[in-house]
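This section describes the prediction task in plain terms. A model, or a person checking by hand, is given the sequence of a single protein chain and must write out its three-dimensional structure as a string of tokens. No templates, partner chains or ligands are provided. The sample shown here is typical of the held-out split.
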Amino acid sequence: MKKVAGISRWFHLFYLGNLLWAPVFDPDTGWVDWVLVAGVVAAFVPMYVLAWQRPSLVRWRCTVPTVVLGALVTPFNTGAAVLFVYAAAFAGLSESRRLAMRWFVGLSALICLFTVVSVVEMPYRLWGLLPSLIFLWLIGILQVEWAEREREAAELRIRNVRIEHLATLAERERIARDLHDLLGHTLTAIIVRAQLVAADPTRVHEEAAEIERTARAALGEIRDAVTGWRSASLETELESARATLTSLGVDVVVRQDPDLVIVGSTEHELALALREAVTNVARHASATTCHIGVEARDGELRLVVADDGVGSDAQEGNGLTGMRERIAALGGLVRRTGSAGTTVTIAVPLRVAT
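The expected answer:
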């Protein structure tokens, strides 16, 4: 396509043949007329090449010099008015529609002026000027339309690149959150099992098997998370939470509305939020009791994880930040209180959750 476009650009130089009408058909033509034609061609061709190689320089390196050259030569050779057509094409490609139209009007005024001041006799003067006046507008407007389509296509490409970049960043953040949730919970469970082995060597075989099972399950979940296929289950996370906290000596009380039917995408995010909240209880709370509730109230689906541990108003880490981002994407919010233990409340609108 680029090769074809390059050939067509060179083909457009054949319009310079309009310069030959006067010296070929004028019986009084002398060598000065031929030198003038050759000089115009020699001066214009470099500007023409520059126009499609360096678009940013078109106005002052091509359009203006072409107009000046045409204004100097047209009074003596009306075929040189074709230079105004080239100037209109340059303006159509490089200027906004409004500025291009101003160029067209100005060039038309110049051609009308030369119908009066040219030394070429009538009607040959009009035969040389009128076609250029008509083609100035036709070609100029076509170039404006083409340039606007090119600009729109370029802007669309830029927007698509930006969208792809943002999508890539969002996917990276998703994977980072998933890996954090997965590894935080799993490593906590493994550490707990290892501590139990250290405290009671007689349980080494039982706990080693449990550690292996947990590690294998986590490996599968990590693979699914990276490929974007993982779908966490709230029931599975409730069972896992009960097993993890019970192994630490924490009594777990679960209240769950049996009539709730949660859509898959919301259940996935709630399950990951529950995993993060339970992991924080296991790591930091030093609690003896943990209450977990899943119920509908006041137009919201609420997941509440409350422990009677030490509580804390410390700055939130990556886990809670990732949880807030997940829930916010569903139109919900996360509330956390750190007095008299810690309570984390995840609320999602029922119209989204069910």
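For orientation: The chain has two domains: 2-162, 233-354.
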